[in-house]
Amino acid sequence: MSNIINPVETDVKRSPITDALGSHPVGTSVGAVLGGAAAGAATGTVAGPVGTVIGAAVGAVVGGIAGKGFGEAIDPKREQAYWRESFTNRPYVDSGSSFDDYGPAYGYGVDAYRKNPTRSFDEMEPELSRDWNGTRGKSSLDWNGAKRATRDAWDRVSDFVERAVPGDSDRDGK
Q1: Most distant CA pair in the chain: distance in Å?
Q2: 147 in a domain, yes or no?
Q3: What is the pTM of this model?
Q4: Which of 6, 8, 119, 127 satisfies CB 3.0 to 4.6 Å to 123 for a cystine?
């Protein structure tokens, strides 16, 4: 059975990997990249290549602390509310379907991205497919029915992070 849990039950101030209170891996890595790049570039300009290395290390620490906010900004309850309100407008949702069927797939996508922010959905898909039956709860959808909703939620939160980080941080080509 998968370790991916229902995001509604997730405490956003806990690490989804260790369940410890504190920094979130998405926020920490995003902040570290931003901080390291900025500090490394600034220091490197003044001190040369050695300064770039030192600046990156200092920036990673400072940026990791600042980046904590990005991870906490991915709020599973807000995501659930968004999908509950808008799921019927998605092209893959069958007419007359219930949120009880699609909600677990959206939560699965959000939680999977939060736990694996450095991987692409395509890289994760075999694991997500394998573990869907153990995490789908009361959803009547098989993986073929849930996959597009899961990816939709994954893309929404990864795009949120990417808007905060210049470049293609989620490696989806956009």
Answers
A1: 63
A2: yes
A3: 0.59
A4: 119
CB 136 within 8 Å of CB 147 = no
* Most confident by average pLDDT, 3-12, 23-32, 117-126: 117-126
Instruction: Compute the half-sphere exposure of residue 37: CA atoms within 13 Å on the CB side of its CA.
Output: 8
The helix/strand/coil state of 157 is helix
Tokens 């939680």, located at residue: 111
Give CA–CA dist 44/17, Å, rounded: 34
Does 60 reside within a domain?
yes
Structure-token match 């509950």, residue found: 84
Position 173 in a domain: yes
What are phi and psi for residue 9, nearest 5 degrees? -90, -5
Q: Dump pLDDT digits (tens) for 89-143.
A: 999 999 889 999 999 999 999 999 999 988 999 999 999 999 999 999 999 999 9
